[in-house]
Amino acid sequence: MSKLGILLNSDKYRDDVVGIIKAAKAAGHDVSVFMMDDGTLLASDISSECSGDAEFAYCDHSAEPRGVKDVQGASAGSQYQNAVMVHDADKVVVF
Counting beta carbons within 10 angstroms of the beta carbon of residue 9, is it exposed (0 to 12), middle (13 to 18) or buried (19 or more)? Predict the structure, then answer.
Protein backbone atom coordinates (compact mmCIF):
# COMPACT_ATOMS: atom_id res chain seq x y z
CA MET A 1 0.00 0.00 0.00
CA SER A 2 1.38 3.41 -0.91
CA LYS A 3 0.60 6.85 0.39
CA LEU A 4 -0.65 9.65 -1.84
CA GLY A 5 -0.19 13.28 -0.86
CA ILE A 6 -2.40 15.97 -2.38
CA LEU A 7 -1.40 19.62 -2.12
CA LEU A 8 -4.42 21.78 -2.88
CA ASN A 9 -3.60 25.46 -3.42
CA SER A 10 -6.49 26.33 -5.75
CA ASP A 11 -10.26 26.25 -5.42
CA LYS A 12 -10.78 25.34 -9.09
CA TYR A 13 -10.40 21.55 -9.02
CA ARG A 14 -12.84 20.37 -6.36
CA ASP A 15 -14.38 17.50 -8.34
CA ASP A 16 -10.99 16.27 -9.57
CA VAL A 17 -9.59 16.20 -6.04
CA VAL A 18 -12.63 14.39 -4.64
CA GLY A 19 -12.44 11.84 -7.47
CA ILE A 20 -8.74 11.18 -6.89
CA ILE A 21 -9.22 10.83 -3.13
CA LYS A 22 -12.04 8.32 -3.56
CA ALA A 23 -10.26 6.35 -6.31
CA ALA A 24 -7.01 6.14 -4.32
CA LYS A 25 -8.83 5.02 -1.19
CA ALA A 26 -10.81 2.41 -3.17
CA ALA A 27 -7.51 1.08 -4.52
CA GLY A 28 -6.23 0.65 -0.96
CA HIS A 29 -3.92 3.65 -0.73
CA ASP A 30 -3.59 6.02 2.20
CA VAL A 31 -4.30 9.63 1.27
CA SER A 32 -3.25 12.89 2.95
CA VAL A 33 -4.45 16.30 1.80
CA PHE A 34 -2.90 19.64 2.70
CA MET A 35 -4.78 22.80 1.68
CA MET A 36 -3.22 26.24 1.42
CA ASP A 37 -3.90 29.56 -0.33
CA ASP A 38 -7.28 29.41 -2.16
CA GLY A 39 -7.37 25.66 -1.59
CA THR A 40 -8.46 26.40 1.98
CA LEU A 41 -11.77 27.65 0.55
CA LEU A 42 -12.61 24.00 -0.20
CA ALA A 43 -11.49 22.63 3.18
CA SER A 44 -14.92 22.20 4.74
CA ASP A 45 -16.56 20.84 1.59
CA ILE A 46 -13.89 18.28 0.69
CA SER A 47 -13.19 17.11 4.24
CA SER A 48 -16.88 16.45 4.85
CA GLU A 49 -17.50 14.71 1.50
CA CYS A 50 -14.37 12.55 1.84
CA SER A 51 -14.58 11.95 5.57
CA GLY A 52 -12.80 8.72 6.37
CA ASP A 53 -11.10 8.58 2.97
CA ALA A 54 -8.12 10.81 3.80
CA GLU A 55 -6.34 12.82 6.45
CA PHE A 56 -6.92 16.55 6.03
CA ALA A 57 -4.91 19.55 7.19
CA TYR A 58 -4.91 23.19 6.12
CA CYS A 59 -2.65 26.17 6.53
CA ASP A 60 -4.16 28.38 9.21
CA HIS A 61 -2.15 31.36 7.93
CA SER A 62 -3.75 31.00 4.47
CA ALA A 63 -7.20 30.21 5.85
CA GLU A 64 -7.58 33.15 8.24
CA PRO A 65 -7.76 35.99 5.68
CA ARG A 66 -10.20 33.88 3.61
CA GLY A 67 -12.56 33.47 6.56
CA VAL A 68 -11.93 29.74 6.92
CA LYS A 69 -11.69 28.44 10.48
CA ASP A 70 -12.60 25.46 12.64
CA VAL A 71 -13.03 23.02 9.75
CA GLN A 72 -14.58 19.81 11.00
CA GLY A 73 -12.58 16.78 9.94
CA ALA A 74 -9.41 18.77 9.18
CA SER A 75 -6.65 20.02 11.40
CA ALA A 76 -5.47 23.61 11.27
CA GLY A 77 -1.74 23.86 11.02
CA SER A 78 1.15 25.34 9.14
CA GLN A 79 3.59 24.50 6.40
CA TYR A 80 5.05 21.98 8.84
CA GLN A 81 2.07 19.68 8.12
CA ASN A 82 2.72 20.15 4.40
CA ALA A 83 6.35 19.17 4.86
CA VAL A 84 5.37 16.07 6.84
CA MET A 85 2.86 15.06 4.16
CA VAL A 86 5.45 15.44 1.38
CA HIS A 87 8.04 13.50 3.39
CA ASP A 88 5.67 10.61 4.16
CA ALA A 89 4.06 10.35 0.71
CA ASP A 90 5.23 8.05 -2.06
CA LYS A 91 3.73 10.45 -4.62
CA VAL A 92 2.44 14.02 -4.36
CA VAL A 93 -0.09 15.62 -6.71
CA VAL A 94 -0.47 19.41 -6.75
CA PHE A 95 -3.63 21.30 -7.71
Answer: middle
Gyration radius from the chain CA atoms: 12
CA distance 67 to 56: 18
The DSSP code for 11 is: S
Strand (E) or helix (H) holding 73:
none
Q: Which CATH class is domain 3-94?
A: alpha beta
In three-state secondary structure terms, 63 is: helix
pLDDT score for 1 = 74
Domain boundaries, the chain: 3-94
**Which pLDDT belongs to residue 6?**
98
Give dist(CA 15, CA 76) in Å, integer: 22
